From TrEMBL:
Gene Ontology molecular function terms on file: GTPase activator activity
Domain of life from the UniProt record: Eukaryota
PANTHER family on file: ELMO DOMAIN-CONTAINING PROTEIN 2, ENGULFMENT AND CELL MOTILITY
GO cellular component, one term: membrane
ELMO domain residues: 127-259
Transmembrane segments: 192-211
Name by which UniProt lists this protein: ELMO/CED-12 domain containing 2
Pfam families (UniProt xref): ELMO_CED12
Signal peptide: 1-27
InterPro entries noted in UniProt: ELMO_dom, ELMO_domain-containing
Length: 259
């Protein structure tokens, strides 16, 4: 209860006067203070993205977030932002803010694109969605698929006779993921990566990293049977989320050539 009262008091009154005092003492607005205390990277971009100044100057900042890199430069929105909040005091300050805005915009575009694919319900009657035969040919090139609905799907990991039931949670994103891995290099890892982009960090998780690291994690843990998959999946998920809590983390996939 006391925490709730403090939060209401801080957000409605104290926060405004505290930031006014800091600006008076330092001669810098909040955006400028963030860029000064945080080096370039995820931490700076995340703090600017969470900055309530965005809502104060929403007409300018939100317009900048809707532009690509070329449009951002052509329309000089960043310079207008700096003029509005008294931020512009040199080219370095402008470039720092510009880079953060581009990163935030790129993250929003990534989220929207992934969500759009995920919301597309798999439809076996839609020819554009019916890539299951192609998936089968990639994974089982020497075995002919008897029909679209068949128990053969269990041979490559599907739970029922009709694989479309396995795509209910992730929609076309699940099928797209399976095709990508079959052609170039699972649905569970796609779902994991999808959930991670909701986290309050501005990092792009590469599914190939998850696939390789989960395989290595699985072998290291030595589970007794495949029936323990869900428990080890959650354990691996917690491990990755813990790494993402560290602002300076760098996830590097080192492939063991001997294997």
């Amino acid at each position: 209860m006391l925490g709730y009262i403090w939060q209401c008091f801080y957000s409605s009154c104290l926060r405004f006067w505290l930031k006014w005092f800091l600006r008076l003492v330092t001669g810098r607005c909040e955006l400028q203070r963030i860029c000064a205390r945080c080096k370039a990277g995820a931490l700076r971009t995340a703090q600017i993205g969470e900055d309530h100044t965005v809502f104060v100057f929403d007409q300018v900042l939100r317009a900048a977030l809707s532009l690509k890199e070329i449009g951002l430069d052509e329309h000089l929105h960043v310079f207008k932002i700096c003029a509005c909040c008294g931020y512009y005091k040199g080219l370095t300050a402008v470039l720092n803010l510009r880079q953060c805005l581009l990163q935030i915009n790129a993250y929003n575009e990534l989220f929207e694109a992934v969500e759009e694919v995920r919301k597309q319900v798999f439809d076996s009657e839609n020819k554009e969605h019916e890539n299951m035969q192609h998936l089968w040919d990639l994974l089982m090139p020497s075995v002919k698929l008897e029909s679209r609905i068949t128990k053969q799907w269990g041979n490559i990991g599907f739970q029922g006779d009709d694989p479309k039931t396995d795509f209910r949670g992730m929609g076309m994103l699940g099928l797209t993921n399976l095709l990508f891995f079959s052609e170039n290099l699972g649905i569970n890892l796609t779902e994991m990566a999808y959930m991670l982009i909701f986290a309050p960090v501005f990092l792009l998780i590469i599914i190939r990293y998850l696939a390789y690291e989960f395989d290595k994690f699985w072998l290291e843990e030595e589970p007794e049977s495949i029936m323990e998959f869900n428990r080890y999946r959650e354990k691996f998920h917690d491990k990755v989320k813990g790494q993402l809590q560290m602002p300076e983390v760098t996830l590097i996939m080192t492939v063991d050539q001997e294997k």
